[in-house]
Amino acid sequence: MLHDKSIKLDQLTLGVCYYPEHWKEELWADDLKRMLEHGITVARVFEFAWTVVEKEEGVFDFALFDRFLDLAHRMKMQVIMCTPTATPPVWLTHKYPEALNATKEGDLYYHGHRRHYNYNSREYNRLSARIVTKLAERYGDHPAVIGWQIDNEINCEIAEFYSEADHAAFRDWLKKRFGTLDKLNEAIGAAFWNQTYTDWAQVSLEKKTLHGHGNPHLALLEKRFTSHSARAFVKMQADILHKHVKGRFVTTNGIFGHLDNHEMTQEGLDFLTYDSYPNFAYGQEAGINAGDTGSLKDRAWGLSLSRARSISPNFGVMEQQSGPGGWDYRMLMPMPKPGQMQLWTMQSVAHGADFISYFRWRTCWVGTEIYWHGLNDYSNRPNRRLEELKGISALFEAAGAAAGGRYEARVGILTDYLNEWDGERDLWHGPLDAQSRQAIFRAAQLSHTPVDLVYLRETASHQTTVEELAPYSALFYPHPTILTQRTAQVLKDYVAQGGKLVFGARTGYKDEYGRCPMVPMPGFAADICDVEVVEYTLARFDEPVLNIRMGDQLAPAPDAHDVLQPGSTARVLAQFDSGWYGGRPALTRKDYEGGGVAYYLGSGFSFEMADLLLKEMGVRSPYAQELTCPQEVEVAVRRKDGEAFLFLLNYTEQAQACDIHGDWRLLDGSSAKGSQSLPPFGVLVLRKEG
Ligand code: GAL
């Protein structure tokens, strides 16, 4: 059964990440006082502070955090406590090096950084369980503590694990899954290049191989296993916390690779919190993976926020960017310009966040993150960002009732973990999918068409049902090279019930192990679309990019081409415009009784094609009656109990004007009808009954 894993707040709430162990104790009271004066009512603490309370194995001293929590309580500051397992104490890894993660070559990762432990070490699990239990017993019912964060950013920094404990656990996991070596050999196509295992002792996670890549099917299993290990580690902690901390929430923060975050949240957490750093768009790593959303810059972060929303419809942001970023050796980022901090905060809120906690109260004066600025600079003097925070706090007050409102989207972009993981290695798949997803998101953003990211799930705890998809009028499933029969059936039911669904090139030719069975492409999608792929090619290197012609419109057809042969119940909507398959079908549609339509696009999605398809499906610009806005402004609506909140977000350095036609009101209650101006990086929140 699927549980609603939303944060439950009836007021938008501000928090901040705080590190009492970094500062002289005399500063604490002043820090808390100023936080409260700026509208911050929650402080997150402790995620890297294990040694503060356990200086040597089994010797506990809680005095420092006792004092901090008591002070917080006296001053009416609420606290989110963390479990400290992201940074094991030096004494621990020195005594139990088996707790460390390792490279494929077997070299250990030592302290000096963070997240250098592995999930399968028996000793690390034992010692983690003990510190979590001790903390939960001590602070479980502390009046200042409102909730718990497990670890910090599971699978951040590194999402690959090759310690001895991981190799052994992988072997056991495969044994349970396959039972016999024959079945394992079959699943991983071991006949190819003579990789047949003849004894379980030979089986391991990938080791050093030529070109750094071993068997691709085993690599896919490896990612599933990493997800399983990470989830088990989180669940171990969640079970302890739930036992001891009645009435407090349990969460973790961030979304990272090789981890089924949906399953993790369903099985152990109350909701997910996300860490939002849109300033990446302006820094040293801007453009990395930005693809077609490159021109959206910080606005592209909405796609990541949509991922958080797909797990927890109302989520929290545990770390919201509040200053320039960067470590001393990478990720350099500039100072947010006036208004940008508020813009990024409200971007999170517009996308469904009800709790925003800034990273961090004060910029750290030591360590790798001396350039990852917080709200306060090293000097601790009043500054522009703190001034801006006062305005944000006032806006939270005025728009606070938006909390609990659900982001409204009638269009979904489908995805699933198996395809995401497969695409990480498969170059015919991953880059195609990434660029299409970004193009669709950009077309949706610029046309003011809110979209959700929708995860199709086929796990032990949940299999996506057609009822979950039914609220969407249209779904894009860009390039599911892996398409199971069950998922195909749910999608077929969706179109049979009136939904509109688009697949892109290279759909459906792989099974769940990433093998390519002997069936015509696009596998199980053939039946849904009544189409066959009769020729295909990689088009990524074509110069210029070939076009698809749809009536009198031309749209670029990036990356990969499938030449289509529709069956008797499908028809051709568009053709390749030139090249050796010029004139042959590139887009087909099959109509279902009840209004449903299944489209097959024989290429990657360009921005232009995504835009045409939004129009073709009649789902583009759903708020056109309500307002006219320049494309530079993001439009989002959150709705609850007969009330709607409209968020207008200006991502540019120029003022923008929107024309409001509907009965929207400003937050002071006056009518918003007519022209409303948004200053550079400005935000406008309007509300309306109904
Ligand atoms: C996050 C992390 C924080 C801090 C921040 C800035 O990923 O959770 O602890 O490191 O990034 O680097």
What is the gist of this entry?
A nine-stranded mixed β-sheet has the order 13-12-14-15-22-21-20-17-18, sandwiched between helices. The chain has an eight-stranded parallel β-sheet with strand order 7-6-5-2-1-10-9-8, covered by helices on one side. A four-stranded antiparallel β-sheet has the order 11-24-25-28, covered by helices on one side. It is α/β, with parallel strands linked by helices.
Tell me what the structure shows.
By secondary structure, the protein is α/β, with parallel strands linked by helices. The protein has three domains: 13-87 and 125-159 and 228-403, Alpha-Beta Barrel (TIM Barrel); 411-616, Class I glutamine amidotransferase (GATase) domain (Rossmann fold, 3-Layer(aba) Sandwich); 627-689, Sandwich (Immunoglobulin-like), CATH 2.60.40. Helices cover 30% and strands 21% of the residues. The protein has 18 helices and 28 strands. The strands form six sheets. The protein has a nine-stranded mixed beta sheet, with helices on both faces. β8, α10 and β9 form a beta-alpha-beta unit. α8 runs parallel beside α9, α8 (216-244) packs across α13 (417-425) and α14 (430-446) packs across α18. The longest helix has 29 residues, at 216-244. It is globular, with a radius of gyration of 26 Å. The chain starts with 12 loop residues before the first strand and ends with a strand. The mean pLDDT is 97. Beta-D-galactopyranose (GAL) binds at residues 152-153, 156, 275, 319, 359, 369, 372.
